[in-house]
Design brief:
With about 290 residues, the protein is an alpha/beta fold. The chain contains eleven helices and twelve strands. About 30% of the residues are buried.
């Protein structure tokens, strides 16, 4: 049976009048009367009592009322799900992230998100901290995975504090030390990583008035940094996330005092973000938390 007829019957009973129900349903009163007559023919018995006091259910209609409500509610939920899925077929999420995040977090995040939202495409762009925030401000991407920077305006969802670590040649004299003083970088030839690290590392040095010998032509990718440090061409700083899974011949020590980069998700406005974007951020927060609780 047509659930629209049952929904119309509920409206007539709740409002107590064909006139008021027809007005609410945006149909004519004669059209509603015709619909109710057809419904009673389909059921084979009267459902409504119609008199001068208005409209009410017959005894048989009263017995059916709970099931009618369930039917109409289930139909409404089905229509909402159909509309929701049809809309998601046209949706996409544009994501910007550092290379380390693309490697270690996004595959799991996107995989699990697609299981729940198979019709949402996720487009990923990799860039430096400057590029990632510029794309966000321009509206080129919907959200950015990056380290927190105060020079741009955005809404922020924290994900993880990524420890920064000293990267030293294999023969660097450390003695019994298990931490590397930030002050010891002063005057040393420093290999500056690219793609998202320079602002975080400069913040560590500026906050402690340390001035290493940073060569402007040595801003290269993480793997090249590790190889150059391994060959004794300088020292550097990378993060725990970047080093995850690597087996390079370098010495790696926590900084003293400790330092980290605050990794999270930035959007221009959480209030204005599409529901699917907010859901992607929620998935990201849960998954990153799970990855780093192992």
């Amino acid at each position: 049976m047509d659930t629209k007829k049952w929904a119309s019957l509920l409206a007539a009973v709740e409002l107590g009048s064909f006139t008021r129900a027809a007005r609410q349903l945006d149909i004519t009163q004669s059209g509603l009367t015709h619909m109710m007559n057809a419904l009673e023919r389909e059921t084979g018995f009267p459902l409504l009592v119609r008199d001068r006091s208005g409209v009410r259910l017959t005894a048989a209609g009263e017995r059916l009322l709970p099931v009618i409500r369930e039917l109409v509610q289930a139909s409404d939920r089905l229509e909402e799900q159909i509309a929701d899925q049809a809309g998601r077929r046209r949706e996409s999420i544009r994501v910007a992230a550092y290379s380390s995040i693309c490697m270690h977090w996004l595959p799991t995040i996107v995989q699990q998100f697609r299981w729940a939202y198979p019709h949402v495409s996720v487009d990923i762009r990799m860039g430096s901290v400057e590029e990632i925030y510029r794309w966000l401000q321009e509206g080129t991407v919907d959200l950015s995975f990056a380290s927190r920077q105060d020079r741009w305006r955005y809404d922020w969802t924290p994900l993880w504090d990524d420890p920064l670590l000293a990267i030293l040649p294999p023969d660097y004299p450390l003695g019994a030390r298990d931490r590397f003083p930030v002050a010891e970088f002063a005057g040393k030839e420093f290999l500056m990583p690219s793609l998202g690290f320079d602002l975080d590392i400069l913040g560590v040095f500026e906050g402690r008035n340390v001035q290493p010998d940073i060569r402007s032509n040595t801003a290269v990718e993480d793997a090249a940094i590790l190889s150059m440090v391994e060959h004794g061409l300088g020292v550097s700083i990378l993060s725990q996330l970047v080093l995850q899974g690597r087996r390079d011949n370098v010495r790696v020590l926590p900084l003293d005092p400790p330092a980290c980069r605050h990794i999270g998700v930035a959007v221009r406005s959480m209030e204005e973000a599409l529901p699917v974007v907010r859901e992607f951020i929620a998935y990201s927060k849960r998954i990153v938390g799970a990855l780093h609780s192992r």
